[in-house]
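FYI - complex with adenosine-5'-diphosphate, inputs then prediction.
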Amino acid sequence: MNQNWRGTVVRHLLVLVTGCLLLGLISGYYAWALVLGLALYLGWTLRQLLRLHQWLKQHQPEEPPPDGHGLWGEVFDSIYHLQRRDMRVRARLQAVIDRVQESTAALRDAVIMLDTDGNLEWWNRAAEKLLGLQSPQDNGQPVSNLVRHPRFKEYFERGHFHEPLELPSPVNDRLRLQLQITRYGNHEHLMLVRDVTRVHQLEQMRKDFVANVSHELRTPLTVIAGYLETLLDNVEDVTPRWQRPLQQMQQQAMRMQSLLNDLLLLAKLEATDYPSDNQPVKVAMLLQTIRNDARALSGERHPIVLEADPEVWLKGSETELRSAFSNLVFNGVKYSPEGGEIRIRWWGDEQGAHLSVQDHGLGIEARHLPRLTERFYRVDSSRASNTGGTGLGLAIAKHVLLRHRGRLDIHSEPGRGSTFTCHFSSQQRAPH
Ligand code: ADP
């Protein structure tokens, strides 16, 4: 209330009190006259309050407030102006929301907003086409009821969204979708879904091509390797100057055979999401056999220490785990100088199960680490060709781990050695 209105109210009250005093002077009842005057004033004030209340409760948006006198008139007008301003702001906001919704509705990618618990709040038209969401019946439904793929459920529950997820569309098997979830605001989720069918088909063609070529090369190579072996078995019948070339040919043929085997294994790993044989694997026993093989590879030139908890088992495929773990252990041997200790540890804790393979060998520079699990990536090609590696060992290990809900951590310092650690979630541990 500004100064003016304060003055008016004081003036009104003064007029009222003076009127009451005059009435008291005429009638001789001062007290009663004052009571009557105040009661009238109170009654009038209450009436204005009631009118305001009624207008606030029942008025239409454009309906002006009731006429009021004095201070009450001013109060009515201020409330009316406030309401008008609020309506204008709301209309402006609605226009912005409408524009955003119209533009996202026109997107070819699906945009879905989920609340903290993963219930659907809003989605655009593309989401109806790609995921089969139906408006309005799916509103408020948990997203995992509508996208029922087990990998999506796992991905959503795990809550690590830095990598996108690829799935077939729930409405059309031939469509391949890529889902990316981002958290925003108060732990709400924004889900973007893209149709990546074309990229997926190209990727599939690439995989099929590699698998087919590897398969086709296998038979001719077996024949060549077989003849080379026969020739070398009868080495005395061969001209001496052919002996060395033949030995080198046999070495290279063996290298090609292990390359083809690794390529075929990778193709097999890529063909499905999870291993078909999900059996309990006694990892400690598996590691013992791997240690024995590693000793043979090293020719007893490296001390190999194994500390494995026999109580910790994993669910999965023993053959796949054997390839992954032996690749890590054999790398330790291949890339360590004579006498360098290789330490293998297998243990379990609340987070799950872990395998670490530590060596004190050549080590790897930090800039190579992010690319190490790529196919044919080699830190130093001369180093790798000496060791007879295929460049596929770590790619195989990474794939096997992915299929067993695990991940690979690599720490390394050039000249000091490397530690490769596989972490498996507790979900993957097998009870026994
Ligand atoms: P490769 O068959 O050549 O060993 P991998 O995929 O197993 O292929 O490894 C990729 C590259 O990573 C290797 O060529 C090697 O340079 C490097 N590397 C792997 N393990 C080790 C290790 N324990 N110490 C040093 N370098 C390593």
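The longest strand covers residues 176-184. Residues 327, 331-332, 335, 359, 361-362, 364, 372, 377-380, 383-384, 389-395, 418 surround adenosine-5'-diphosphate (CB under 6 Å).
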